[in-house]
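Sequence only, no structure available. Ideas?
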Amino acid sequence: MHTLIVVAHPEPESLSHAVAAQIARGINLAGQKHTFEVANLSQEGFDPRFTAADLAVHRQKALPSADVRVEQARIDRADALVLVFPVYWWAMPALMKGWIDRVFSNGWAFDFSLQSGLIKKLSHLSVHLVGIGGADTATYAKHGYATAMKTQIDHGIFNYCGAQVMTSKLLLDSETADSGQVLHAAEQIGREILAAMSTPVSLSGGMQ
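Reply:
I predicted one. Tokens follow.
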């Protein structure tokens, strides 16, 4: 089983990258049958801008560009996709959002036309979301962010494509809490990912 871990943060020494590494460690502890790849979008220089060329792909008037096809191939090789991101302005960073905008294109992640309607094409993919926030749990609960995250990302993006969100977690107090606790939680997420990959996936299409 193979996992693709995607992280979007400009600093290699950031907590986001450390969390991604710990998730990978949790996966690695399961043994040689489980492999992973880390996609560092910032280091790799992925261009998140959705241009007229991407719009032509969406309208199925052109094929995806080479950089998008590389990312789609990465996901095609994976049984599970893990997104690790800092929460910026109550959302994921523009780099990761742009990666989704461009990579999860019409014709690959889904097929949509006025004639045939929507066909979801990623039902084979398990998704795990790990957001890292600086505020505390009470602040996030007060403003309903956890629910908003599930609506926007879990349902709005991945359910639309048919992918199953198996894990949707927020690691909070990242600026004040003991980083060791955060990293321990990240390693546990890696272990949970493997457990989820061994569990039959429901194709109900509902919010997870």
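The longest strand covers residues 164-171.
Hope that gets you unstuck.
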